[in-house]
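ok trying again, last paste got cut off:
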Amino acid sequence: MRGVTFPGERAVEIMNFPDPTPGPGEVVLEMKASGMCGSDLHQYRRSKTVPRASGIPASSEPVIAGHEPCGVVVAVGPGVTAAEAKVGDRMMVHHYQGCTQCSHCRSGWQQLCQEVPVKVYGNNAHGGHAKYLKVPANTMVPLHEALSFTAGAAISCGSGTAYGALRRMNVSGRDTIAIFGQGPVGLAGTQFAKAMGARVIALDTSAQRLERAREFGADELVNPGSNDPVAAIKELTHGKYADLTLDTSSNRDARLNAIRSTKVWGTMCFVGEGGDITIDVSPHLLRRQMTLIASWTFSTVIQAECAAFCVERKVDVDKLFTHRWSLDQADEAYKLFDKQADGKGVFLI
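nice, full thing came through this time. structure:
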């Protein structure tokens, strides 16, 4: 089979790999949709000579990209029960594998495993940008018949990440939430927060992304490139500031502004990967009784809950996608995605 790889420095190479065969406890999925996520860009842009600083052990061999896989089971290995998977099942993939036996792994948080180096599909283990993907049966999450394969791909990382963060923040209809960054994850956050009943202030420096946020239900739009975002949020909340703020951008200024625009006793959540900030703890955190949390993706349980939420609340996850590609178009797809000025893309396989 052919698979998309990232040799580094914004290059894409489509390579040939053997079709996978499932071993004990494993299944093979035929991919139907494999989403493009902002985290892909770390591997896509990486230097060929400088080691990665992600903390995830690198593979010594070329790895198929794509960590938002969704497809149909086509082969089942020894020891996999019918309750876990059978041929023809529609499945999403939770794209991590740890030791499978520690408390984190057994509760569905395999990415938090402290016992073995964690495999991350599409990063240091083969991912979904190919015809087939072999995974342990315990990494799969059933895809409801009411959801498309493309929706399942989004829930498998980008949309699921937004949902997981909002869930940790206990968003409700009483809250005003300011979401910094309206790329695919931030836009999914806007979409879910509205479905949860919150008032949403959407922030981005791209006028195009702000207009998309309006389409997804944002109540107020703020462009930090032409407005002081902290002052704007203060005015929109009658001096109280936002109950909750969420940063999906990884931008230093956005993160600082998110903290500064959170109310007394409020909660601010980091989602965007990488980077750092420096802030005076006393006035901005300690003397405002602020809660700072970090949310890294989600568990298998929350992934399934996100899918159920989308079905029950009729959340149109497919609306996130602005581009649909074939694997042969991978170079063009990632060149466009690298600009981070448009919406979300997906490979249909």
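cool. The mean pLDDT is 95. Residues 84 and 137 are 6 Å apart (CA to CA).
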